[in-house]
Design a protein that fits this description.
This protein is an alpha/beta fold. The chain has helices at about 15-30, 45-50, 65-75, 85-90, 95-100, 130-135, 150-160, 305-315, 335-345, 360-370, 395-400, 405-415; strands at about 5, 10-15, 30-35, 55-60, 80-85, 110-115, 140-145, 165-170, 175, 190-195, 215-220, 220-225, 280-285, 295-300, 320-325, 330, 345-355, 375-380, 435.
Length: about 425
Amino acid sequence: MAETQLYSPPYRTVAKPYGRALVELARRRPEVVCLSGDLTRQCEIEEFQAEFGARFIHAGMAEANMIGVAGALARQGFMPFVHSFGVFTTRRPLDQIVNAVAYPRLPVRLVGFMPGVSSPGGPSHQAIEDVALMRAIPGMTVIDVADATETAQVVAAMADVPGPVYLRLKRGEIPVIFPADHRLSLVRAQVLEWRGEEIGGGAPTRGGAGTEGGGVTSGGAQTSGGAVILGGAQIAGAADTEGGGQSAGGAVTRGGAQIAGLAETAGGGVSAGGGVSRGGAGIRGAAWTSVSPCDVALLVSGMMVAPGLAAARILRAAGVVTVVVSIPVIKPLDTATVLSVSTAARAVVTAENHSIIGGLGSAVAETLAEAGLGRPLRRIGLADTFAEGARDAPYLFTKYGLSTQHIVEGAWSVLRRPGPAPRAPALPAEAGEYAPV
């Protein structure tokens, strides 16, 4: 199956992809209005204010009232985009979100910047529970994109989502991980694969370590022959069925594949400067129906996509057959892809810039449990703790367990590999570049 190459770290960065995309959408959609909670420049919407002053509302530091205003505008046929930092868009006005927006299922788009510990500002500014709060609200769509290319596309894509949407975005210079021909889907998660020829020894190949219909070979030492059967286990075009059960002594059969519907939205994308680095990865096409057997599946979202890809490269170099799945939509979760990939894996690791409670890791755990799919699971994220203030975000990512090394160690541990986990080398980045922590 054809693959789209990804760029390699350190990634080049672009500034304000969200702000430009919102202006482009407003030029086409006169119902779009913009609300700011006294953080106009910080949320990239000063260009919107300059071009569409009559459609811009400065609500001040009164987020609860701002949500109420947005709900009233939505009732009059407008599509409000509400902006602040993630904590102020979700935690502070939660009651207003529930009653003024979600209960009447209004098309209000809540945009929260500085997710998780990407802010060094301490607990008052770190949105470490925003996904959990928004996931719990009926009818709320929750999106966490990975890079500038997806940010440029998500604005137009979420404009057509029925009901309320919460979008969390990194602030500042945004890395470009995906090339311009990448297409963000709000329906399917995407399987990302490191190109086998870039990894020496033990890399998965068609007919090699990870074979279609064969076992999972870990460095030739251990073969799970036929433990995971693909081809027939995944029924394309079928609904996600409950109560499939497990076949005795054989594969775990999943009677469901991706449910068709809601065509993928094509967006503008970010212009890709320069050639594609040969050390990159590849995106498995959206029409795939199975995954080769693997040792571990890394299910990642948002800012953890970059360290997830870096961790996969390190693990594969150590002989661990690894698949990375980018999950931009945490609710509604693409359970068909999660189950398909998890069925093919011996173990699953989730990674999110969020508490491990109530976010992506919880959503995946719920999916596996309800399907009766027994797989060892490790959740990478904040371990039920508030983070401290700091001078920079990389320090916080390292201290609170969100680094590339933590993902590698999580995978090594869940697989019960002997000896210490391989070390993630430091990757320096120059001005205008972004390297995963």
